[in-house]
Amino acid sequence: MKFICNKTLLSDAVTNVSRVIPSKSSIPALEGIQIKARTGELMLTGYDMESGITTTIEAAVEQEGEIVLSARLFSEMIRKMAGEDVSVSVGDKYLTEVKSGLTEFTILGIPADEFPELPDVQGGNGISMTQSVMKSMIDQTLFAVATTDTKPVHTGSLFDMKSDSLTLVSVDGYRLALRNTALKDGVDTSFVVPGKVLSEISKLLKDDEEEEASLMVAGRHIVFHIGRYSVVSRLLEGEFLDYHSSIPSGGDTQVIVSTRALIDSVERASLLISDKLRSPLRVVFDSGKIRISCSTSIGKFQDEVECELSGPTVEMGFNNKYLLDALKASGSDEVRIQISGALSPIKVLPIQGEEYLFLVLPVRLKNEM
To answer: Under a CB-based contact definition with an 8 Å cutoff, are residues 272 and 294 in contact?
Structure first.
């Protein structure tokens, strides 16, 4: 096998497919990148037996072939090369020469047939949407994915698809994030995609309102197609939370507030809070203002943020990080907060409609600060 390609193009592709490659594996080939050289292009693949990323890039292929090269070593070599182009040549016993300008490395590769095949996801249910919509849906729900595996299915996001809509839902026991979008070609189905896979997909997506991305589900796997990249993943199994019954209806107190102003205030309060100095935020939703305060062993804080409020005054306690995550995920200049009582979850919504919905559970407050 022998090929020449642009260094930057190759480096970007290697970096992206390496995101799923394990640093250590009982199968040595999985610690590497599978490279297939075909007429005019290279196919690069990373895989960890749960998820895989494949991409193709342009290359001048002088001799077709396949090889697996150490992901960590190959990535660092390419990144530190000084030339504009990189030449890779595989000789006897899988000795591989990597050249760029006056720099040359010789490393030992692994036979490509030792690299496990990725699942072939075909003939399932598929949908398409713009990359910007898919990215915003993932980004607005990913923060609420559970990080512990007490209930493994909650370490992913639920894709609840109908004929005319798609809803993404994430829960972690303390909060819920939900995002809706309209569809034209959906089908009634639901499945759960691992959060770590969605995190990598978000990095591949662009804030582009014209370029499309698609997904297809078949059996126990899903594949996302994003430009030149394909990401395949095993789906999570188990019974996901019935999110419909978890969302409180209505809300006696309605608050409209500047998202930036409320974020700034909570961030100021967070200066006194840390993992060692934990303290809930005391938040009073009152007529015309939101009063925020906290107290730890290093000091006290109090602040006010203007708002529009209808309904009774409510005093609540919150984990500062959970409240911040919901506000930052909104992406809106203003948010609407619905409150059903001091011990019920608050709903963070857009001013109009329910394109997104974030639930944040309150914490109990002591009588004294």
So the answer is: yes
Q: Would the pLDDT of 369 be above 50?
A: no
Would you state the structure tokens that stand for residue 314, as one six-digit string?
């409510």
Distance CA 343, CA 118 (A): 48
DSSP 3-state of 46: strand
CA distance 34 to 110: 9
How many angstroms separate the CA atoms of 13 and 190, rounded? 31
Gap between the Cα atoms of 120 and 127, Å rounded: 17
Angstrom distance (rounded) from CA 38 to CA 56: 10
Residue 167 has pLDDT above 80, yes or no: yes
Decide: 10 and 83 in contact? Cβ < 8 Å.
no
Q: Which residues pair with 291 in a beta bridge?
A: 284, 304
CB of 307 within 8 A of CB of 288? yes
pLDDT, residue 96, reads 97
Nearest to 322 by CA among 369, 366, 257, 278: 278
Measure the CA–CA gap between 162 and 147, rounded to whole angstroms. Answer: 28
